[in-house]
Design goal:
16 strands, binds aspartyl-adenosine-5'-monophosphate, BirA Bifunctional Protein, domain 2, 8-stranded mixed β-sheet, 5-stranded antiparallel β-sheet, single chain, about 425 residues
């Protein structure tokens, strides 16, 4: 068995192996998942990005038969062999190798058992993320995440949206609040972007319909299963639209994504043991005021105008299982850019999209008149001078517009049935976690 392997090109992935290749010589490479010895036969389960293949080494090939003993779990190997049709093998075929090279070794014991037979808590999993992700139910989450982003792009582009990229180093808060991460930017102070809000609004005055899929940074003080310091948001903004229009767009997008995942990721959903039901449109819609009244009936007391607490959301999630909107929120609790209702400025044209207890998205109609926006900034104790770069674009022909921000990580949580948002992010960042 050669231990150098400068040429590790392969001809197939494991998923290509099947009885129809009977008699063909193939070259595979990947990781040793397990080694089993059964009398005069040794079996290697080889794993690659697509799945697993059975490599069968009979005693009649004594050189390779002995060499199998040099292999360990998670070693990277390269092999050439002949496919043999065999009904009993999981793929209906196995590979009889005539050469195996060790490309790289792995330590033993590993800090985490990638076969999942030995349980590890979430912190250990995240500390050893690379190994953790070699488990099929972990890989599944990220295949679903990949397909989710695919489906979102496909949908929005079909609706004539254009994808943009806005800066993540910014000079002023876009959402208000204290959750900004300051950074040192040459001689000045700057911040990591909390959202694409101001820039996507500006771009609605150029491209009319824009979207962005990008990270947002929030210095969240709380430690919860749904908050990250670095999250991915799908941001949408559409000129000449109001909140009704973009709520319809959002529910159509959600249905498209759920359908896409159900169709494309049945294997992944199976390995996660998660059943996905596709929501029906229109999603139920409740005003903020109705929700508060209903919560009061459940003895969860929230005064009108106050935010809905986590405990209250959990209560709501007990009766409202799927997707629903909460709309017409109190103006005071929503960001400065949301348009107050014409006949009742105490409430604004805003909404949150919920999935049970979890908020997936929020959005609304925006203020598009400069005077009103300046007033709202002052009311929210923000300094309009810090927003000059933004406010001046409202002097150049700003159309009415509306949009939303959808938390991608939370959407993936819903699609995969994950209980902690950290499971849906390769390398989560939170109050306590900055590595790996
Ligand atoms: P908002 O602040 O509600 O709205 O954020 C939009 C969505 O992003 C997700 N989200 C988070 N996910 C994980 N960790 C966090 N710390 C976190 N914070 C938010 C949620 C949330 O619904 N500019 C507006 C959107 C708009 O009006 O267009 C905004 O950022 O799923």
């Amino acid at each position: 068995m050669a231990d150098d392997a400068y040429d590790t090109r392969k001809t197939h992935f494991t998923s290509d192996i099947g009885p129809e290749l009977d008699g063909e010589v193939v070259v595979l490479a990947g990781w040793v998942e397990s080694i089993r010895k059964l009398g005069g036969i040794k079996f290697i389960i080889l794993r690659d990005k697509e799945g697993r293949s059975q490599i069968t080494v009979p005693k009649s090939n004594p050189k390779i038969f002995d060499e199998v003993d040099n292999l360990g779990k998670e070693y990277v190997i390269w092999l050439r062999g002949t496919v043999r049709k065999i009904e009993k093998a999981p793929q209906g075929a196995e590979i009889i190798p005539d050469e195996i090279k060790i490309v790289n070794t792995a330590i033993s014991p590993l800090p985490l058992d990638p076969s999942g037979k030995v349980d590890a808590n979430l912190d250990t999993q995240l500390d050893n993320r690379v190994l953790d992700l070699r488990r099929p139910e972990k890989t599944a989450i990220f295949v679903i995440r990949h397909e989710t982003v695919n489906a979102i792009r496909e949908f929005l582009i079909s609706k004539r949206f254009i994808e943009i990229n806005t800066p993540k180093i910014i000079a002023a808060s876009s959402e208000g609040g204290a959750d900004l991460f300051p950074i040192s930017y040459y001689e000045k102070e700057a911040f990591l972007s909390q959202s694409a809000q101001l820039y996507k609004e500006q771009m609605s005055s150029v491209f009319e319909k824009v979207f962005e899929i990008a990270p947002c940074f929030r210095a969240e003080v709380s430690r919860t299963v749904r908050h990250l310091s670095e999250l991915y948001a799908v941001d949408v903004e559409a000129a000449f639209n109001n909140y009704e229009d973009v709520m319809k767009l959002l529910e159509a997008l959600i249905c498209h994504v759920f359908k896409h995942i159900k169709e494309k990721c049945s294997e992944e959903l199976k390995s996660l043991n998660h059943k996905l039901s596709i929501p029906k449109t229109p999603f139920p819609r409740y005003t903020y005021t109705d929700i508060i009244k209903n919560l009061q009936k459940e003895e969860v007391k929230i005064n009108w105008g106050e935010d809905i607490t986590t405990q209250a959301y959990r209560k709501l999630g007990e009766s409202l299982k799927g997707t629903y909107f909460i709309f017409d929120w109190p103006t005071a609790g929503k960001p400065f850019y949301i348009l107050p209702h014409k006949d009742n400025p105490q409430i604004c044209e805003s909404f949150d999209l919920m999935y049970g207890w979890l908020e997936l998205a929020s959005g609304g109609t925006r203020i598009y008149k400069k005077d009103m926006l300046t007033e709202r900034l002052k009311e929210q104790k923000l300094n309009p001078e810090s927003f000059t770069f933004h406010l001046k674009t409202f002097d150049w022909g700003m159309p009415p517009h509306a949009g939303w921000g959808l938390g991608l990580d939370r959407l993936v949580m819903s699609l995969t049935g994950s209980e902690n948002i950290r499971e849906c992010v390769l390398y989560p960042r939170d109050r306590d976690r900055l590595t790996p």
